[in-house]
Specification:
There is one protein chain. This protein is of the alpha+beta class. Among the domains are: 2-161, no CATH class; 178-219; 220-229 and 517-570, no CATH class; 280-386, no CATH class. The strands form eight sheets. Strands 12, 14, 15, 19, 20, 21, 22 and 23 form an eight-stranded antiparallel sheet that branches. The longest helix has 30 residues, at 191-220.
């Protein structure tokens, strides 16, 4: 049978929808106590009507007596989940194993407004995979809801607490135990033996208790100590010089070692040109020149001509020397060199693709003509005539400033990876110098011109950890055997000299001092000592503000020898 569990706040319309959606013809509705359906019996009349109309059989299961009563009033089969009784209009029933005398087990029924005494009826019930057994089912007439509730609670108490399944056993009499009373023991003279047995049992219990306490103490005993030291404020204001030429701190002159860090970076960036002009630009490219003539080098002056098969002339931008060829076993292996060339004429006509061979007219009618030649593997481009975007003076000035700022930012970011973490680079202790800034006013097809720049960053830093140790030494000259619990350093008046490699600055230091204390050494000193001695060791600590010790278990009389069982917290 399909079960549907109804939520407390579900209304009758929602329950009916769920009922009609189920394909099963037999459905059990499990309705919780306090469900909104229990507010009116009309909900169950409506539920019965819709179930019958859909040709479905429904059963109500609930612990709520009101819901059970409403179900019965609507001719709906109902049951309480705590009882394995007959569901239907007969009300709540209980099952008593066959053969048990109900008159002996059950108290006389209460008078309840003329209700008749229930008559036992024997039925045979077949349990799944078990033999038949007889059970006695007691049913009775239906009374008011209040009467039903009262009877149900009475039967519930009888079922769980009335001794039906949990009868107390009586303590056996001495005769049943086969034992003898005290008079018999006295007569036989064995009373003293019983007393000795009790004594030995008592001794055994004490031994067990002592052993248990010892095991707990040895295995789980531990000590927790909290120590608070007096906090002493300390401060100093002074001027210092960090110098790359010194190797150690000089307390007399307040000079500390410094280190100069240097990093270099270059970049090429494009910027839009806002001006325009009528220009004539020659195409440019890179030519590879070959020497297949001899092992002797050959000089070629600037403007040396190279001619393509279709007659276009390109000239060397700068003079070069073509290296000599290699001669192996009488065979010449050509040598080569690359060089920049520009078209002889301006304009897009010289924007050519790759050219396999260009001849040198200057060697025409000589043996060198066929053995010296060039090639444009990537062709030539950039040839233009007409109006084109060109950078203005303002464009160039702005672009230079942006390139410089970008280099400074990149160099500062890269600087952090070039020096150890314990070094301190103060704000103002860096310098960026631009060593090269080249502007190409020739614009590309998008109207952008380019700037190539190279910059170098220098920074002067010092080991701040070593500097703090130096300040601690200054503090210990006033407060011996002390250490910093906290220190704050504020730097001002930072002045670098990158030529000398020095950095002068002022520092204001605020710190808190407390005694030098080693928790490991203190644990070792009190391990295995008595608790009283441990308290004395705490009280003897210098500049002690407060000290507390707690032990577990409470009877622990000494500090564990195992330092791992000693916890020390110092503030």
């Amino acid at each position: 049978m399909k079960k549907i569990t109804v939520e407390k706040e579900e209304g009758i319309a929602e329950v009916i929808d769920r009922l009609l959606e189920e394909k099963d013809g037999e459905i059990t509705l499990v309705i919780p106590k306090g469900s909104s359906l229990g507010r009116s019996v009309s909900n169950f009349h409506l539920l019965k009507r819709e179930a019958d109309g859909a040709d479905k059989t429904i059963v109500i299961e609930s612990v709520d007596e009101t819901i059970l009563a409403f179900a019965k009033a609507s001719d709906i089969e109902a049951s309480h989940p705590l009882w394995r009784g007959v569901r239907g209009s007969g009300g709540v029933s209980d099952i008593i194993p066959a053969g048990m005398n109900r008159e002996e087990e059950q108290p006389a029924p209460k008078k309840s407004g003329g209700r008749k005494k229930a008559e036992p009826v024997k039925l045979t019930v077949e349990a799944e995979e078990e033999e038949e057994s007889e059970v006695t089912i007691t049913t009775g007439p239906v009374g008011t809801i209040e009467e039903e509730k009262e009877e149900f609670e009475t039967r519930e108490k009888e079922f769980f607490g009335g001794g039906r399944f949990f009868n107390k056993r009586k303590a056996p009499e001495p005769e049943e135990r086969g034992g003898r009373d005290e008079d018999d023991e006295d007569e036989d003279g064995e009373a003293g033996g019983g007393s000795k047995k009790v004594l030995w049992i008592g001794i055994g219990v004490v031994v067990v208790i002592v052993l248990a306490l010892a095991i707990v103490t040895w295995g789980f005993g531990h000590v927790a100590i909290t120590i608070d030291f007096k906090q002493t404020p300390w401060s100093v204001q002074s001027n210092f010089v960090a110098d790359k030429s010194v190797a150690a701190i000089n307390p007399a002159t307040d000079v500390i070692p410094a280190q100069v860090f240097t990093t270099q970076k270059n970049t090429t960036q494009l910027f839009p040109a806002t001006g325009s002009a009528n220009v004539s630009i020659k195409a440019q490219g890179t030519i590879t020149i070959y020497n297949a003539y001899s092992s002797a080098p050959q000089e070629l002056v600037a403007t040396t001509r190279f001619v393509t098969p279709d007659g276009k002339i390109f000239r060397l931008v700068s003079g070069i020397t073509v290296p000599g060829a290699q001669v192996t076993n009488g065979q010449i292996i050509p040598s080569s060199i690359q060089a920049a060339v520009a078209a002889d004429q301006a304009g897009p006509a010289y924007n050519v693709g790759a050219v396999a061979k260009l001849t040198i007219p200057g060697f025409q009618n000589t043996p060198k003509y066929d053995s010296f030649y060039g090639a444009l593997p990537n062709g030539a481009s950039g040839g233009f005539t007409g109006t084109k975007a060109v950078p203005t003076t303002a464009d160039i000035t702005s672009a230079k400033a942006k390139v410089t700022a970008a280099l400074q930012a990149n160099l500062s970011s890269d600087l952090t990876t070039t020096y150890p973490n314990n070094f301190k680079i103060l704000p103002g202790a860096t310098s960026v110098s631009v060593s090269k800034l080249t502007v190409s006013t020739t614009t590309d097809s998008n109207g952008n011109f380019s700037i190539f720049a190279t910059a170098t960053l220098q920074a002067i830093g010092f080991d701040e950890a070593a500097f703090k140790n130096f300040l601690l030494g200054e503090a210990q000259s006033v407060e011996a055997s002390s250490t910093f619990t906290a220190i704050t350093l504020n730097y001002t008046n930072v002045t670098p000299d990158f030529v000398k490699g020095t950095l002068s600055f002022a520092v204001s230091a605020q710190a808190t001092l407390e005694p030098i204390f080693s928790t490991d050494d203190f644990k070792a000193s009190i391990a295995g000592e008595g608790i009283g001695d441990a308290r004395g060791a705490i009280a003897a600590l210098p500049q002690l503000s407060d000290g507390r010790i707690s032990v577990w278990p409470v009877w622990l009389w000494s500090v564990p020898k195992d330092v791992n069982k000693i916890q020390v917290t110092a503030h």
